[in-house]
Amino acid sequence: MLNASHAFSGFSTNDIARTKKFYAQTLGLEVTEEHGMLTLELAGGGTVVIYPKDNHEPASFTVLNFPVEDIDQAVDELTTAGVRFERYEGFDHDERGIVRSNSSQHGPSIAWFKDPAGNILSVLQTL
After folding, report:
1. Residues with Cβ < 8 Å from 40, sequence gap 6 or more?
2. Comparing C-alpha atoms, which of 19, 40, 22 is closest to residue 31?
3. pLDDT at 101
4. Is beta strand 110-114 parallel, antiparallel or unpaired with respect to 120-125?
5. Pair type for strands 62-68 and 120-125
6. By three-state DSSP, how is residue 100 classified?
């Protein structure tokens, strides 16, 4: 029934202007604003809508993942742009905040960070 629908994801923020600046300037994404909401244009044609919410609470899970070919380069560039990487209990982070793929961590290498509204994002090494 929905296999032909061009689905999109969305999440909230408590500060549209600050969030727009972060996604456009810090992350370098194409961001448009219409009717008080933001639309992120993602590689491959996907979109994400970010909408204002007065009683916004940050997601406690990853809302947006960015696959990258070189996680070390991505983390370096984001750190230079002012992004701070998160560290979560139960994960073995290296000095830069990257959780490396190994026998105890079964997914790809990953590093988490937050947007200005506290929503969790990640960069992860493509396999």
Report:
1. 23, 29, 30, 31, 47, 48, 49, 50
2. 40
3. 81
4. antiparallel
5. parallel
6. coil
- The residue written with tokens 């044609």 in the block is 45
Instruction: Tell me the C-alpha distance between 37 and 17, whole Å.
Output: 10
Using CA atoms, how far apart are residues 93 and 97, in angstroms rounded to an integer?
5
Residue tagged 């070189």 (tokens): 70
Phi–psi pair at 37, nearest 5 degrees: -120, 155
Q: What is the pLDDT of residues 19-59, one digit of tens each?
A: 999 999 999 999 999 999 999 999 989 999 999 999 999 99
Residue 85 DSSP label: B
What are the Cα distances from residue 111, in Å, to 68, 85, 93? 11, 7, 8
pTM over 0.85: yes
Q: Which pLDDT band, with edges at 50, 70 and 90, does 106 fall under?
A: low
How does DSSP classify residue 44?
Answer: G
pLDDT computed for residue 122 by the predictor: 97
